[in-house]
Amino acid sequence: MSSLALDQQPALAPATGLVANGKVLSTAANRMGALVPTDPLIGVEAVRKLYREQGYVWLKGFLDPEAVNAFRGWVFAHLARAGLIEAGSDPTVGLSAPGGLDRGYADRILMSIVRSVAFEGFCAQPRLAQFMDEFLRGISYLHKRKIMRFTQPDTTTATPAHYDLVYLRGGTSRLVTAWIPIGDTPADMGGLVYLEGSHAIGVRMEEEFARNSLDLSAEERISAFNRNMTEGGWVSKDLPEMADRFDARWLIADYEAGDVVLHSPYMIHASTTNQSAANRIRLSTDIRYQNVDDEIDARWSNHWSLGDML
After folding, report:
1. Residues 111-162: tens digit of each pLDDT
2. What are 196-224's pLDDT values in tens digits?
3. DSSP readout, 66-91?
4. Which of 133, 139, 160, 262 has a CA that sits 20 to 30 A from residue 244's CA?
5. Residues 6+ apart with CB under 8 A from 88
6. What is the phi/psi pair of residue 132, to 5°?
7. What 8-state DSSP symbol labels residue 251?
8. Cβ distance 149 to 227 under 8 Å?
9. CB–CB of 235/161 below 8 Å?
C-alpha cells in the first residue's frame, strides 16, 4: 500500500476555513483536497515513483515523534526568554503568550538556534541522512542554509505561493526540499498546502522565465528579485485565485510530529494563517538536499539570516 488507511487522512478543512493573506480558501471539492500520506516502509524506489508523479511525498511517521517533540521543547525553552510562550507552560506544547513578545530578541535567539549543533543534529538525523543518500542515488548534501519558522496564532503571517527553485537557480535543479513540522500541526495551525499537480506548472513557469531572461546578467538570472519576477519571487499571494486559474485543488493535511514532506523544487506551495483554537505556536523547518556531485548554489553555503533575500 502506498498510502495509509482512508480514515487516517486529514479532514478537508477546519470548521472556520483556511485563510491566507486575507483570502479564504474555497472548500469546494474541486478546489480543496487532502494530501496523501505515504508509508515510508514501501521502499525508496516506490517513494521515488510517487515523488515523480505527485511532486511531493508525505512520509508519515518517518522520524521518532518523541525526539521531534523534545527538540520542539528545546527550541521553545530558549524562545521563552523573549516572551514567546505562556509563562509556566510546558515548552513542548508551545502555548503562545498573551502579548509581550520582544520580536527583536526572539529573532536573535532564532538566529542562534539555526547555527547550533542541536539544530544541525536534528536536520542530519541518521535515518533521514541515510534515506536521502539512497533517494538521491549517491552521497547527499544538506545545504548549510536551513530555515526555521515559528508562527503564533491570530497573526496574519502566511507564506505566499511559490516554488523553491526561484531561490536556488545558482546550482542544480535536481534539488529536494524536506519540510518538517516540529510538533503536531493540524491544518488550522497553518502548515504547508500544495497546489495539486503544480510541479508541471512550475516547470513551465521556469522555462518561460528562462526565455524572458536571455538579456539579463548572470547575477540577475539567478536572483528571485529581478525585473522578470513578481515581488519576492512569489507566484501569487491570492491562493483562491490560483486554484481557479489553474483549475486545481489546494491539498491540506493534519501533520503530526515525526512526519516529513519531500517536495520538488517546482512544486507550488504556500502556508496559511495559524488559527489554532488551542493557542499553539506552529514550528517547522525547511531544508534542502541534493547530490553532492551536482553544482551547489554558493548563496546557500551560509547560515540562514533574516533578510538575506533568499
Report:
1. 999 999 999 999 999 999 999 999 999 999 999 999 999 999 989 889 999 9
2. 999 999 999 999 888 888 888 888 888 77
3. HHHHHHHHHHHHHHGGGT-B-TTS-T
4. 262
5. none
6. -70, -35
7. E
8. no
9. yes
Q: Return the C-alpha cell found at 210.
A: 528562462
Q: Which residues contact 117 (CB under 8 A, 6 or more apart)?
A: none
Domains of the chain by start residue, with CATH? 17-293 (2.60.120.620)
CB 279 within 8 A of CB 90: no
Look over the chain and give the mean of its residue pLDDT values, rounded to a whole number: 92
Locate the DSSP E strands across the chain. 19-20, 23-24, 32-34, 37-38, 56-59, 140-142, 147-151, 175-181, 192-195, 250-252, 260-263, 269-271, 282-291
Q: Where are the alpha helices (DSSP H) in 28-156?
A: 44-54, 65-79, 103-113, 117-123, 126-135
**pTM across the whole model:** 0.93
Predicted confidence (pLDDT) per residue in 258-274, tens digit: 999 999 999 999 999 99
